[in-house]
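Anyone up for a design puzzle?
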């Protein structure tokens, strides 16, 4: 009996060590530099908007000027920071509802459902971004909002086959209908 218990302990210790290693590697490979508020806002393109290319659009709608990497990095970093801040605020408000003594069971159940939806969207966005990066794009950011999805990729000019690849990836990872997916590049 003692030998069996020792095997269980070693198995538990090795699983905890593997989990710790996975968390460390995830942190190490996804680490982004910490930005001050000035850094985030200084890198935004004029107007802070992306040049949208609807799925059925033409390649001629994409800006022809070369995209400068510092602006792109600023845009993508700012977009990720903005997305993270908005999510943190939403989760904080939902946590307040869950912790509230005056909130009813129905409200708490709805808050739990919304927190789960946020977590699911984070996972879908992360998976989609990783797959788009694997296709050869240097930077991208994905936003899922209900039944809509926006994808911003770093590219001088999106080719039709690239747009089709991104569209297919987004559909398969998020389940969002093609008509509700917008693929764009940042304004320069």
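Challenge accepted. My sequence:
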């Amino acid at each position: 009996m003692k030998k069996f218990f020792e095997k269980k302990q070693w198995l538990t210790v090795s699983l905890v060590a593997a989990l710790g290693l996975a968390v460390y590697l995830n942190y190490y490979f996804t680490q982004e530099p910490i930005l001050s508020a000035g850094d985030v806002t200084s890198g935004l393109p004029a107007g802070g908007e992306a040049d949208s290319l609807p799925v059925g659009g033409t390649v001629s709608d994409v800006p022809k000027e070369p995209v400068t990497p510092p602006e792109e990095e600023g845009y993508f970093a700012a977009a990720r920071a903005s997305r993270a801040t908005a999510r943190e605020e939403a989760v904080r408000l939902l946590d307040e509802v869950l912790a509230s003594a005056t909130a009813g069971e129905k409200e708490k159940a709805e808050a739990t459902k919304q927190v789960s939806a946020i977590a699911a969207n984070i996972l879908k966005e992360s998976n989609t971004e990783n797959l788009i990066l694997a296709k050869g794009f240097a930077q991208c950011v994905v936003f899922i909002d209900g039944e809509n999805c926006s994808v911003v990729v770093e590219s001088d000019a999106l080719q039709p086959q690239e747009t089709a690849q991104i569209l297919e990836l987004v559909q398969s990872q998020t389940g969002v209908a093609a008509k509700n997916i917008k693929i764009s590049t940042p304004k320069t």
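A detail worth pointing out: Residues 69-99 form the longest helix (31 residues).
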